[in-house]
Amino acid sequence: MNLFDTGSDVLRWLEAFLLYRLYKKRATSLDDVKIVIVGDDSISTDMQPKAVDGNLVYLCHSATDDTDEILECYGLGIVRSVDTVNEKLYLLPSISTNELQHSFGLSLKILWFNRRRSADD
Asked: Where is the NOL9 C-terminal domain (predicted)?
């Protein structure tokens, strides 16, 4: 017997609530995030948010803004969308919101590896 095939309104509500919690967008200001793109120096700083939109990224932290520093990564995330008008990045993190805020504060770095090959490769 499938638990969600019982027709119960309570179970349907519970399923909808769990799906909402699973896919709830977590928004952060683009000013609070440093995007680091590995493997492609041709992407300008203003185009970086669009480059990570819809991609799997690493959620990292470092004590400084030095991009050559080794980053400590805490988990993965999916960038659900980027709102460049309102300067918001919507993220589905693999770690809890509390861990995300406690671990990173305002120093979250999003690391993305560009796997696209150019015609010269």
From this structure: 28-102
- Does residue 57 lie within any of the structural domains? yes
The residues, ordered by sequence, that sit 6+ positions from 29 with a Cβ below 8 Å of its Cβ are 87, 88, 89
Is 119 part of a structural domain of the chain?
A: no
Q: Which residues make Cβ contacts (< 8 Å) with residue 65, sequence separation at least 6? A: 34
pLDDT band at 86 (very low <50, low <70, confident <90, very high): very high
Domain count, the chain: 1
Q: What is the C-alpha separation between 54 and 62, in angstroms, rounded?
A: 24
Evaluate if residue 35 carries a pLDDT over 80.
yes
**Per-residue confidence band for 85, with pLDDT thresholds at 50, 70 and 90:** very high
Q: Which residues contact 118 (CB under 8 A, 6 or more apart)?
A: none
Element (H, E) at 111: strand 108-113
CB atoms closer than 10 angstroms to residue 109: 21
Task: Find all residues with CB under 8 Å of 8, minimum gap 6, and list them.
Answer: none
